[in-house]
Amino acid sequence: MKRKRTLSRGDLIVALAPIVAVLLAFAAGAVLLLILGADPIKAYAALIDGAFGNQASLFRTLTRATPLLIIAIGICIAFRGGVINIGAEGQVFIGAISATAFTLAVGNTIPPLLFALLTLIVGFLAGALWGAIPGFLKARFDVNEILSTVMMNEIAVQLLIFLLSGPMLDPEQAEAGTRIPQSAQIPDGSWLARLAPPSQLNLGLFVGLAMAILVYVLMWRTTIGYKIRAVGLNKAASRYAGISVQRFVMLALTLSGGLAGLAGAVELTGITHRVVEGFAVGYGFSGIVVALFGRLHPIGAIPSAFLFGALLVGADKMQRTVQVPAATVTTLQGLIVIFVVSSDFFIRRYNARRKAREVTAAPTAPDISQPAPEAAV
Amino acid sequence: MNVGQVLAEALPLTFMFASPFLFAALGELFVQRSGVLNLGVEGMMLMGAFCAIYVVSPQGLGAGPVMGLLVAALVGGLLGLAMAVVSVTLQAEQGISGIGFTLFGLGLSSLLFRLLAGGVITAQGFGFQPAVIPVLSDLPVIGKIFFQQNILVYAAFALVPISTWVINRTKWGLQIRAVGQNPAAADSMGVNVVLVRYATVIFGGVMAGIAGASLSIAATPVFQENMTEGRGFIAVALVYFGGWSPFRVMLGALLFSIANNLQIWAQILNVQIAGAAIPPNLLIMVPYILTIAVLVFARQRRRSEPAALTKPFQRGEN
Fold it and tell me: Which of B60, B40, B72 lies closest to B212, judged by CA?
């Protein structure tokens, strides 16, 4: 009886820690806004109203949450495999631009639903390839994946601008001489169906939810997932158990990149229907925050993506109505990351104390606060 | 155009744009030598860059460049202190907390830029001006390269031998190295591990702030959102590249400065492929590709990596 109570208190701390962290971040953000002479109550009210105020804004929130969810699920895989993927942004670009090239090359020659499916697969594969590069470098040369994925982002940004202003420039733009860097519109056969016009909510949402379940099954119900997690928890023990650490590190980053690429293709086929300069900027970092806040679990990423989708949609409204710049959200995201990783300290301390108290340890609850990514390098 | 002219045009820029890398990387070198990885350099640079230009520009406070530099150092130091609390005291995972600080710095500098400066700010004519050294600056070619730079460039390069001396020849340096190699042993010898790490992480923040200022009130001198464009991360990579040695970090900084200014080099040298100028975006990519290449080859230097890098210290555990 007594043990049961302590266990549930431990679970409570694990569950509450990120929520407290977010509240603290918002409080710190409010102080910042106050110092800068903006009214934090008005700003946050506009933010909440913008995210949930009416049906249209709720749909916007869901639409915005979709790519974040898919990216975050991928980042969860990497984290669980002991690697940190900061490269989602680049992988999103590469996924989207490759999917664009594919649809433009193929045209409306394939039945619509199959066309959309193939386009998404192309996006996944392209993102996976872009993620496999830092994965290979990590596995083969022990290159710090945080640094290499940041560099891969910068390379992808430049590649994107180069393609959009030259080889893949919209012929209409070229003809009109305006040369706004954007691709041509993709054929409508590859578009994902809209669920509630005129809102942009589309089938992509279900792609995201399906991915959450699929990745959960992959990571917790298959040997591949078990091995990825084993490598993430303890490389030496995994090696001793005969698991090829290098292969699974690379696989984790490849899958992670694939999901980001898929997110890019979903954004393309569901919403934008073409790639423009500034496409999906900031999604990569947001995806990391979503993954962390969802406790690095694909199912946890669902409510987390919803929350951060709301934050981003609300920020637009906040910027429009009370003139508080949307950069506030980036600042808040930074604070949330800092507070969430710091809160692990209290969970660890709680667990350590409980262990000390109960020397006759019954099996302890799995410590999801500690995916233990051996920070890289 | 002859070679001499090319060098006279491009080399001064190479040295000038090496200074932000140098400040940030030398600071990070001390941080890593003590066993901490600060990946928040990028955010700290951005904050330093904005605060410096806001203090200096007549649009902002209109104080002198020295004041701007001091404020940038202070802001960087405060962020360093926060990073130290998170990574040393709370023992948070250093990769992720660093990303948190980068995001925070990126967001807050953009927010301040919008709210305080309305989205446009320049320090043209008010930042650090070239400090022309008499006589030496009149030397042909060399004079312009080495002796007509702003004072921050001289300072950055002067810090290279000073850093080497501090690390290898002073008691502080010994303590930093001991804490980075074997914190438990250092602790048992009476070195205050936590204090040493706080000191280096705060110092790293100060240097990152100065690195930002060396861009915004000396080299460019304007501010734009995310103007560092990954330079903070490159600075972290330079520490690996330099094998934790200040002199080799300096060589890396010069190399990356050249890579960062390839557009200028290509223009001066009039490089063409198939009769057309190389698309600028492909040139901008080069330093990032170079960083990855450098990280692959820096692997051989890994034996000089501080043994306790990224490992939090808890007395009685290791």
Answer: B72
